[in-house]
Design goal:
The protein is of the alpha/beta class. The chain contains 14 helices and 15 strands. The strands form three sheets. An eight-stranded mixed beta sheet has the order 3-2-1-4-5-6-7-8, with helices on both faces. α2 links the parallel β1 and β2.
Length: 437
């Protein structure tokens, strides 16, 4: 252990990051920034080739930053997993999606673990960062790594430290975000503290990997439940003729006991729509039903359907049918300022409207091409935001409130404008054509 701790302290250890997506690539570059030689692993050869040429596929990470680290000899992207044998620190940052039946899909984690096991050597540290249910590190990784000749905490060190990446958030960077760390043994925890202490300002040690795994789920379920609450209130206040955005703003003036959450068109991104199902699945092994959490998931999942119903009602008020109407969706990314469409409510809405035989287009300056559209079975391209395209739309729906969108243009030229993000609040003057959903 001392030899590894010395390597970490002296920045002589080699870091290996498996999975170069929204989590893996930023942390790989952070290790480089801290002075560690870093090898980035990915099974997607196209990604590796792009990175190796100094280009980025993530909008919030400039290609110049990648090229600089490659030129310095600090960053090496590769699909050659035999290079894991050269790494002292191995970070697993692979996807943990759901199956079609909403059960955890750990295939990426398990396959990665099997690959690491082929090259595992004494003195290495392995840290799982992928979001998962409590017990994964011990049940799925430890059982595959431990053998008669390799024992965790003695020969190698096994850690869980949940990612806290927030793409597009300019207020926080990896270095300034506290890092929760749990280890299989006390020695594992000490190594984990040293690893992350070398790249972040504050490390938060916890008593076990299960505690660290649960902390990540709590963070995201907390958001999901509170968003569900305000989404449900949005649907109620809509019937009452009350603006939920004004309600939240007024309540936010209370200096204690209140934290503002905002309604929207539904949940998006990889974490919040998925993580509750990981805990619900695990809870069943303890004969426990997470009713409150599951209900929140149902509320958030219902929101896009409610928006479609409200759109149909507003069109009816103009003696138009949803069937055959021209609908323009503003924003395809799941949040503003990014090009990430994973679990985006915009995709859900486009699928729902298309299933109702509406004619749907979208505009997003960050997403030139959109896939994952079940009814269309093809990709579609972003439509230019012009006066002509706005005026020929029966309804325009703001789904993602990118800063680059000209909301004055939308308010001025839309016949019917539905705002799911309160984006039109920045537009002055009368807005009789604007409805909230």
């Amino acid at each position: 252990m001392k030899k590894l701790l010395d390597k970490i302290e002296e920045k002589k250890g080699v870091a290996g990051i498996i999975g170069l997506g929204y989590v893996g690539l930023p942390i790989a570059l952070r290790f480089c920034d801290a002075g560690f030689k870093t090898i980035g692993f990915d099974i997607d050869i196209k990604k590796v080739v792009l990175l190796d040429s100094g280009k980025s596929y993530l909008e919030h990470i400039p290609g110049g930053r990648i090229k600089e680290r490659i030129d310095e000899g600090l960053f090496t992207p590769t699909s050659d997993f035999s290079l894991l044998s050269k790494c002292d620190i191995i970070i697993i940052a692979v996807p943990t999606p759901l199956t079609e039946s909403n059960d955890p899909d750990l295939s990426f984690v398990i396959n990665t673990t099997k690959t690491i096991a082929q090259y595992l050597k004494k003195g290495q540290a392995i840290s799982l960062e992928s979001t998962t249910y409590p017990g994964t590190t011990r049940e799925e990784l430890l059982t595959r790594f431990d053998s008669s000749s390799m024992k965790a905490g003695v020969d190698y060190f096994l850690i869980y430290s949940p990612e806290r990446e927030d793409p597009g958030n300019k207020h926080f960077e990896i270095r300034s975000i506290p890092k929760v760390v749990g280890g299989i043994t006390e020695n594992c925890l000490e190594v984990g503290k040293a690893i992350y202490g070398a790249i972040v300002k504050e490390v938060v040690p916890v008593s076990s990997t299960e505690t660290a795994e649960m902390s990540k789920l709590l963070e995201n379920i907390f958001r999901g439940v509170n968003i569900a609450l305000v989404n449900e209130l949005k649907m109620l206040t809509d019937k009452m003729g009350i603006n939920i955005w004004e309600v939240v703003k007024a309540s936010s003036t209370k200096p204690f006991g209140f934290m503002p959450f905002y309604p929207g068109p539904g949940l998006g991104g990889h974490c919040i729509p998925i993580d509750p199902y990981y805990l619900s699945w695990k809870a069943k092994q303890y004969d426990f039903s997470t009713r409150f959490i599951e209900l929140a998931g149902e509320v958030n999942t219902h929101v896009p359907h409610w928006i479609v119903e409200k759109t149909a009602s507003l069109l009816n008020g103009k003696k138009k049918s949803l069937n055959g109407s021209n609908i323009l969706i503003i924003g395809a990314a799941y949040k503003k300022g990014v090009n990430d469409t994973r679990e985006s409510p915009a995709v859900s809405l486009i699928n729902l409207f298309t299933s109702a035989d509406a004619k749907v287009r979208y505009h997003d300056p960050h997403v030139p091409v959109l896939s994952g559209l079940r009814k269309l079975e093809r990709t579609i391209k972003s439509t230019p935001l012009t006066v002509k395209n706005i005026e020929k739309s029966d309804v325009v729906i703001i789904v993602t409130d990118h800063d680059e969108i000209d909301y004055n243009l939308l308010v001025k030229h839309s016949d019917l404008l539905i705002d799911t993000r309160n984006a039109t609040s920045r537009v002055k003057g009368k807005k009789r054509n604007v409805h909230f959903a």
